[in-house]
Amino acid sequence: MAGIKVIADSACDLPDNLVEDLGIGIVPLDVRLGEWGPEEMKRVGPGEFWRRCAMTGAVAETSSPSPGTFAESFAHAADEGCPSVVCLTLSSGLSGTYQAARAGAEEVRGRVDVRVVDTRTVSVGEAMVVLETARVGAATNDLDLAEAAARAVVPNVQVFCTLDTMDNVRKGGRIGAARAFLGSLLSVKPVLEIRDGVVKGESRQRTRARSLQYLVGLVKRAGKLDALAVAHAAAVDLDPFLDMLAGVFPRENTLVNYLGPVIGTHGGPGCLGVAYLRAGAA
């Protein structure tokens, strides 16, 4: 019989090779970009997404999966012989995805045991919770332990990002507590963080270069890390940023991936995010 199935939403921005190697199920959020609807966008990788954004100037619209979509994913896991599922979602403070997953789990109650965990974070921060859950699930084949591992990691994952433009984040409507912070900015580059499951303003930096240096400083001050990840929205200065981080955490062990459409559409082109997991938290 198959073991525990780990399922996440597409906001986790996990690289395809890890999704495939670890057998992680992905439930996609709906994305619309200009004339391209959700079905078309499901076939578009993040690199192509950012190319189309640059080509058209369009800002994507996103919406949560339906409970039925989650229920189908859970039922499919059961059909594959998985007796249990741990489902990880992006923060309930930013999306209705967690509530949809909970409702989907109710639809399959009695057929497969589903535990839904709100990661309280996004993008590669969410990916860190997913990866730890998958590791513990594969090692123990114990649903309670896999769920406990996810919940233990959640408060120890930190996500920061810097924006190159504020147009998208203002239009997206998901900035919440950061609205007043951003509203007072002109040409400076803001640094935002995910705190208590929502987006909040962390600092104001005068230039892009200083904002990247500031992110590196935040990582340094975190102390010893078990994991580091970077997500980027086709940022032209990605490689220099990774070089800067290499002095803090081994570059070969740093997870790097595109910031996908779900989160990237709010951060906008050039957005660079960093997530870390403190040592001993996993």
List keywords for this structure.
12 strands; Rossmann fold; Hypothetical Protein Tm841, Chain: A,domain 3; 6-stranded mixed beta sheet; single chain; 282 residues; 4-stranded parallel beta sheet
Q: How would you sum up this structure, described in words?
A:
The chain contains twelve helices and twelve strands. The mean pLDDT is 91. The strands form three sheets. The chain has a six-stranded mixed β-sheet, with helices on both faces. Strands 2-1-5-6 form a four-stranded parallel β-sheet, with helices on both faces. Helix 4 crosses helix 5 and helix 6 packs antiparallel against helix 7. Strand 5, helix 5 and strand 6 form a beta-alpha-beta unit. By secondary structure, it is α/β, with parallel strands linked by helices.
Blueprint of the fold:
Elements: E1 5-9, H1 16-22, E2 25-27, E3 30-32, H2 38-42, H3 46-56, E4 61-63, H4 67-79, E5 84-89, H5 97-107, E6 113-118, H6 123-140, H7 143-153, E7 157-162, H8 167-172, H9 179-183, E8 189-195, E9 198-205, H10 208-221, E10 225-232, H11 238-245, E11 255-258, H12 261-267, E12 272-278
Helix pairs in contact: 4-5, 6-7
Helix tally? 12
Distance from N terminus to C terminus (CA atoms, Å) equals 27 Å
SSE order, one letter for each helix or strand = EHEEHHEHEHEHHEHHEEHEHEHE
Strand order of the largest sheet: 9-8-7-12-10-11
- Which CATH class of the largest domain applies here? Alpha Beta
Gyration radius, rounded = 18 Å
